[in-house]
Amino acid sequence: MRAIALLSVVLAGNFFGAAHAQEPTIQIASRNQKIRAILLKPEKPVASVILLVGGHGQMDIAPGGSMKWGRGNQLVRTRANYVKQGFAVLIPDIAPDWKAEKNPKWGYRWNVRHGADIGALVAYMRRIAEPVVIVANSRAAVSLGVTLLVTKEKNRPDLAVMTVPMLMPVEEQPSFIKGIQDKPERAQIQMLIVSNKNDVCSFTLPELIADFQAWRGTDKLDVVMLEGPQGTGHPCESEAAHGFAGIDDQVVETVSAWIKSRK
């Protein structure tokens, strides 16, 4: 019986992996690079969302849609929920040249060329459905910052959402402010911040939001504080309160309702 149970677990795992391996991918040109991304679309999308993962961001998405890293990220694990909400969903890897650099500090996140890369993704999704919304998780707030710094017109997102974001400089870590080069005027876009009252990751503490509001101003800026279980593991990882453990549905519903209310 034990062998049968073990075989069932293995087969279930293989099936799950195979299912995700079949997700459609595309390649989007930026500079002299081609950025691979998973693209999911309902029949008639009401908007487009670009889901930017935190951490080092190198997902290594394969042509068939499998990924070496990032499946547990809160945005990635809820991608199907955003499709059910009616959104076209893009989950991008980073450009190949960033992978080649092997930067241990992930310095690509505040590089203006990276901001241009994301701008190219925005322009691509604009052809599918508008508005185009960037949803940036945790460290991806740095990427959003540099994107807002360098993009304009069709390459600039219409709306921006940050979930448990790295907003302010903490312990020499990068932040949204670093990405946007401390230029609050470039951050004037309809924006939503979703945080967790129980997030104890030192880089994304809820109380840092007030400092961000003072820096940017509160015009066109909405803040929603959710509350869920503490979760498990490292306080800055996806299974803890930082990753909205246990309240994924609340995050998706909050983000989706906000986007739809801005259409």
Outline the fold blueprint.
Layout: H1 2-21, E1 25-30, E2 33-40, E3 47-52, H2 74-77, H3 79-84, E4 87-92, H4 96-101, H5 112-126, E5 132-137, H6 140-150, E6 159-163, H7 176-179, E7 191-196, H8 208-216, E8 221-226, H9 248-261
Parallel strand pairs: 3-4, 3-5, 5-6, 6-7, 7-8
Antiparallel strand pairs: 1-2, 2-4
Helix pairs in contact: 5-6
Q: How does this model look, in words?
A:
The protein has one domain (24-261): Rossmann fold (3-Layer(aba) Sandwich), CATH 3.40.50.1820. It contains nine helices and eight strands. The chain has helices at residues 2-21, 74-77, 79-84, 96-101, 112-126, 140-150, 176-179, 208-216, 248-261, and strands at 25-30, 33-40, 47-52, 87-92, 132-137, 159-163, 191-196, 221-226. Helix 5 packs across helix 6. It is globular and about 40 Å long.
